[in-house]
Amino acid sequence: MPVNVIITGRSRSFPKDVPPMPGSGTVLAGTAAADVISGAAKACLDFVAVELNNECLGDHIGLDADPIAARIVGFARFRLGTADPSNLIELVSMDWTDEDAVAAAKAAFEGGGFVVACCADRPGRIVNRLIRPYFNAVLRRLDDGLASAADMDKTLMLGLGYPEGPNALLARTGLADHHEVTAVLEGALGDNDFTPARRAQIAWQRASK
Amino acid sequence: MGVGIAIVAARAGFTVRVFDTSSEALDRAHEQTADFLKKSVARGKLSPSDRDATLARLIGSTRIADLADCEFVIEAIYENLTAKHDLFGQLDQVCPPETIFASNTSTISITEIAAGSGRADRFVGMHFCLPAQLMRLVEMSPGLNTSDETWRAAWAFCEALGQKPVATSDTPGFVLNYFLIPYHNDAIRLVEQGVASPADIDIAMKAAMGYPMGPFELLDLVGADTQKLLCDAMFGLTNEKRAACPPLIRRMIAAGHLGKKSGRGFHHYDDSKMFGA
Ligand SMILES: NC(=O)c1ccc[n+]([C@@H]2O[C@H](COP(=O)([O-])OP(=O)(O)OC[C@H]3O[C@@H](n4cnc5c(N)ncnc54)[C@H](O)[C@@H]3O)[C@@H](O)[C@H]2O)c1
């Protein structure tokens, strides 16, 4: 039996087709996904996976253990700005989420051809927590004259085997989007390593005009 | 590290004097070089005659006076400013005035090392990547007193070695380590905070960004002990909190979980096979 996928509003994870996923569960994607969580959770399937953007799962189901919400997990398909979505699904659970529900959701996404990484319900999950301060540092050091954008990119590609340097990647996927994500994380984490770098602030201001 | 640089230069056709104060280190270097070149022949990357010629171009010595005919010296001794000043001070007496000096330092300022070399205008930073004999990147940085002529000559020499130079400024960690050390620390802090396991973080970063290795796979190769040294040097120089050594690294060192070399780091290793990720 394939997983039931309900898309309400625009989904960053599934802008086009959704691959068939095996299993007994519901995937709720799109900007209005959270509105239908409780109805889906009562349907007694193995899991309900709700799409997250920059918010946490706890924003939708609260922080306290609850037998119905114990089968709800959060997910986000990682996507940088305007780039196509990656193949990564970050699968979010609370410490009281039913382990079988997490395993069922993981198996469903993997069955759909995705790579799944599990994580706790924290702002930025895994990838944004790691790349945003890194990108901010790159943008700041570019201002400082550490090296040209091309030389910085070349160094990181030759030295670490990156497929694309961070400067080219940010230029391609949108500095304004970097601002949007980092500003949310700075608010949530209170950590100034997430304060959008000057170049991102300018891109954001110009995009908002 | 020095062995890899010597292989690069000899393979490119230069006669190389490999100087080390320790004769055991020289013997080890010779063995490692012969082993590496043997594998290059087996993989069809080098002909047997080129291997013999490359080996013949490498001349080991424990006497600094043997460097008197060198036109270019690349230093790769301990990461210690006093030791480097001491060595360059001696080299300045031994080598002709036109010889260019370079340091492979990862964290010390090129200008500061050059200041104790007696020839700050003929001094550059040349930071190779480990393993130098396989990695083409060299981060080149001028000190404040490096002359344009020296910079151009060193750049041309780097290209003649068959390497790919990139220009960076003389600031702590240059490009690669400046970004990599804090990024690795951020990943370690996610584990400390229980956000995700090393295996999940590695999976996520590879799938999301197309990186060939996850941060913990790379950290296990670098070694927890080396990561601590790098953090201490970088944090001491920059005072940036992301560069500060995470407590988990100290605990791992105390527990002997150094990484691949000790069989266990963030992942477990058995006969160099990787588990976890
Ligand atoms: N290991 C790395 O990943 C790496 C990468 C890039 C740059 N570097 C830099 O390369 C340098 C060496 O690092 P390493 O890891 O190879 O160190 P190491 O300790 O493994 O080797 C240093 C060698 O220098 C010799 N030595 C010490 N004092 C000497 C002297 N006065 N004269 C001649 N030989 C002397 C030692 O006997 C030893 O064989 C450091 O500056 C380091 O920052 C290291």
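^ nicotinamide-adenine-dinucleotide complex. Residues 23-42 of chain B form the longest helix (20 residues). Strands of chain B lie at 16-19, 58-61, 72-75, 100-103, 123-128, 137-142, 164-167, 269-270, 273-274.
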